[in-house]
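Sequence, please.
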């Protein structure tokens, strides 16, 4: 599992240092919450991530790609490129994006 983070809440917003220009290549992921995970501590942002030529397969691997954050955390996730990925067995999903991660029910507000 590879987890990309850039600070949690006020710390990430104060430093404003995104995780950026990262290349993940020729990896084999077999265990964990995701093969490539972005967040949840992503208040500083995440951009220009390149993932290629990786294998992700195991009943012990929950997801191949996971992005998680919430409205209070902030941070921008942009320019994520994934190619030539082989996904075999995962226990939950190939891709999961959770924008309500760790929010309690009373904290969730939807704007229409």
């Amino acid at each position: 599992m590879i987890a990309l983070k850039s600070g949690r809440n006020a710390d990430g917003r104060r430093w404003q240092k995104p995780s950026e220009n990262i290349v993940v290549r020729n990896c084999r992921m077999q265990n964990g919450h995701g093969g490539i995970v972005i967040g949840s501590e992503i208040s500083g942002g995440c951009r220009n991530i390149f993932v290629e030529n990786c294998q992700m397969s195991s009943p012990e691997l929950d997801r191949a790609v996971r992005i998680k954050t919430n409205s209070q955390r902030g941070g921008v996730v942009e320019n994520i490129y994934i190619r030539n990925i082989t996904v075999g067995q995962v226990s939950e999903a190939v891709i999961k994006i959770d924008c309500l991660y760790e929010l309690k029910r009373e904290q969730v507000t939807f704007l229409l």
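The mean pLDDT is 89.
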